[in-house]
Design brief:
Blueprint lengths: L12 H23 L3 H40 L6 E5 L5 H8 L5 E6 L11 H10 L6 E5 L12 E7 L8 H13 L1 E11 L3 H11 L2 E7 L14 E6 L2
Parallel strand pairs: 1-2, 1-4, 2-3, 4-5
Antiparallel strand pairs: 5-7, 6-7
Helix pairs in contact: 1-2, 2-3, 5-6
Bound molecules: S-adenosylmethionine (SAM).
S-adenosylmethionine (SAM) binds next to α3 and β2.
């Protein structure tokens, strides 16, 4: 469930604003064209406007509700004992990190991030600490400012590594591959990786295969994790370190 006092922001706020503004503009223009007696271009704009506004609504639902529900189910399925060390790559304001922390009464959830506001609205380490306090788990959370491509942790430190919608923000192919290799490096033998993303997921799975990962799996996370429609769907890459 979403704690009313914790505030998790909106993913890619520029894209949500763009979809909403473009959709409303097309609907207004369609109304004007109907008014001046140009029905065919008006219908085209009407359909386009409806698609864009529906996409914006779906995007908003995913970022404000859907992704929370999907991650609750994913974390429940991990069957954590409660004493694990878990790392969240690109934790942002803590949506996954703090859900993990709630499941770790005697473990620790570590979040690493660069706190980029273009990737999540209001993103900052202070905002994540405020959410950790609001969720009542600040005592089992650690926040680290760092780059996923060069993690400041020893090999085999974590029982579980999670990440949601973060790795695709790295602009180049080699950087994304480096982040995936780093995620695998810091996993303990027997450790689990759960990496959800909207793009490049087949490549992440290939890189994990090259690293020697076991049980590599790529699966769709369903409509509740669509960013605007089925063309931007979130996929989970899962594996185990042998
Ligand atoms: C869309 S947000 C997702 C945040 C959070 N995982 C969630 O699902 O709510 C992507 C996050 O990745 C972070 N990020 C982007 N590039 C990064 C990098 N190279 N290293 C660490 N964090 C990065 C951004 O600062 C942002 O917090």
């Amino acid at each position: 469930m979403v704690n009313a006092r914790a505030k998790y922001g909106v993913d890619a706020p520029g894209i949500l604003t763009g979809l909403t503004v473009a959709g409303v503009a097309e609907l207004v223009l369609a109304a004007v064209l109907f008014g001046v007696g140009w029905p065919i271009p008006a219908v085209v704009l009407l359909v386009g406007g409806i698609v864009l506004v529906a996409g914006a609504a779906l995007f908003a639902h995913t970022t404000l509700r859907g992704k929370f529900r999907v991650w609750d189910a994913e974390l429940d399925r991990l069957g954590l004992k409660g004493d694990e060390q878990v790392l969240d790559l690109g934790c942002g304001r803590g949506m996954v990190l703090l859900k993990v922390a709630k499941r770790l009464p005697s473990g620790k959830a570590t979040g690493v991030d660069l706190w980029l506001t273009k990737d999540q609205s209001g993103n900052s380490q202070d905002a994540t600490w405020a959410n950790a306090r609001a969720e009542g788990v600040a005592d089992r959370v650690e926040l680290v400012t760092g780059d996923m491509r060069d993690l400041p942790f020893d090999d085999a430190t974590f029982d579980v590594v999670v990440s949601s919608l973060a790795v695709h923000n790295i602009p180049d192919e080699e950087g994304r591959a480096e982040a995936v290799r780093e995620a695998f490096r810091v996993l303990k033998p027997g450790g689990l990786l759960r990496l959800a993303d909207i793009r490049f997921t087949r490549r992440y799975a290939e890189v994990l295969g090259e690293c020697g990962a076991a049980d590599v799996e790529v699966r769709d996370l369903g409509w509740r994790f669509w960013y605007g429609g089925p063309h931007v769907r979130t996929v989970m890459v899962a594996c185990r370190r042998p």
